[in-house]
Amino acid sequence: MAKFILKRLAMLPLVLLGVTLLLFGLFNSLSPEMRASIYVKDPRQLAALDEVIRKYGLNDPFHKQYSRWIGEVLSGNLGYSETAKMPVTEAIAAFFPATIELSVMAFIPIMVLGVWLGTVSAVHRDKWIDHVSRFISITGYSLPSFVLGLLLLMVFYGMLGLFPPGRYSLASDLIIYGGNYQPYTGMVLVDSLLNGQPGVFVDALRHLVLPAASLTYITMALLVRITRSSMLEELGKDYVRTARAKGLPENIVVNVHARRNAWIPVITIASILFVQLLGGVLITETVFAYPGIGRWVAQAAVQLDIPGVMGVALLTSTLFVLGNLAADVCYALVDPRIRFQ
After folding, report:
1. N or C: lower Cβ tally within 10 Å for the chain?
2. Phi/psi zone of residue 85: left (φ > 0), alpha (ψ -120 to 50 degrees), beta?
3. What is the model's pLDDT at position 237?
4. Which long-range contacts (CB under 8 A, 24 or more apart) does 20-26 make?
5. Neighbouring C-alpha atoms within 13 Å toward the C-beta of 166
6. Strands (E), the chain
7. How does pLDDT run across 55-86, given as a tens digit for each residue?
């Protein structure tokens, strides 16, 4: 297993190299004039296009431009984001912790409820709980996330005033930027506890409830369907019938024997879903005015903030590779029959 993990980690630079070549190739497919116009914000400065092309070497051969750019990336310089008004690395450090916080808060109920509903639905096939589970999965899979988000805001914030949008309230903002608060991780829930501010923790948790609930309902639908189909396949196999014939309790048959063998496709989907959450959930973050990385990269894309878009693309690519590695390791932990040579 250790050898397998080291091999996969050794492949990470090759994967990132391919991603950087693809990203830079797409950007380089634009003409030098079009790329130079990104740096010329005032139409009256169009005469400066030639100067920008010369300054940044936009007419150089592809390999020279790429080597120059990748050298900056490897040195930690991802460029300057005009949207965030700061270097891209600082922007990622500022927005990514919020997305991590939201992703974790959503992923825990996604896993717990998704696996439970899928298992119960398979065990009680074609009964009322199965119909309810399929209704939840179908509506969650087909319901647009912005519609669900607006409905949740209308009911729980507009009518009941319980869970506001944003990341925290003005009172918490005054504490966080008051001078004595130390942002150790950038995640408000963690930092508030480390700073001994339970009021900020509760306030941030209230702001996370609605976006996390929206993501849970939308994202959980796929996991429920995968778990149900995988469990139905396992429950129909000979070893399950043998276990029941031996008189084993039904909960042992389902939870110990069948569900463990049904984990492989569930782990695959779960790893993909978690990385997608970490990569930014644009619509949810926009609807709930949540300052995560998805909302920022959407603004960067609209304003042709190329360094910001490429920086997030590199981050997401790295997360997908690491997510696949974590899934492979979980395969072997769940099923000892799996051996990576």
Report:
1. C
2. left
3. 85
4. 20/66, 20/70, 20/73, 20/314, 21/66, 23/310, 23/313, 23/314, 24/65, 24/66, 24/69, 24/70, 24/310, 25/62
5. 11
6. 80-81, 86-87
7. 778 888 888 888 888 888 888 888 888 888 88
- Contact partners, residue 127, CB within 8 Å, separation at least 6: none
| Cα separation, 225 vs 117, whole angstroms | 9
Structure-token pair, residue 292: 């995560």
CA dist 261 and 126 (Å) reads 22
Query: What is the spatial distance between Cα 43 and Cα 38, in angstroms, rounded to a whole number?
Result: 11
**Cβ distance 119 to 254 under 8 Å?**
yes
From CA 312, how far away is CA 282, in angstroms rounded? 13
- The residue type found at 258 is A
Contacts of 269 (CB under 8 A, 6+ apart): 222, 223, 226
> In the chain, which residues have pLDDT < 70?
39-48, 336-341
Structure tokens at 252: 């042992």
Phi/psi at 114 (nearest 5 deg)? Answer: -65, -45
Q: What is the DSSP string of 139-199?
A: HHHHS-HHHHHHHHIIIIIIIS--S-SSSS-HHHHHHHTSSS---SSS-HHHHHHHTT-HH
The Cα–Cα gap between 247 and 245 comes to 5
Amino acid (one-letter) located at 185: T
Contact 242, 258 (CB under 8 A): no
According to DSSP, residue 42 is labeled S
Place of tokens 């396992």: 234
Percent of the chain with pLDDT over 70: 95
Chain mean position to CA 104: 9
DSSP letter at 81 equals E
Listed in order, strand segments (DSSP E) in 47-162 are 80-81, 86-87
- Whole-structure pTM value: 0.84
**Cα dihedral sign, 162-174-296-18:** negative
Q: Which domains does the chain have, with CATH numbers?
A: 86-334 (1.10.3720.10)
Packing angle, helices 198-235 and 145-152, rounded to 10: 140
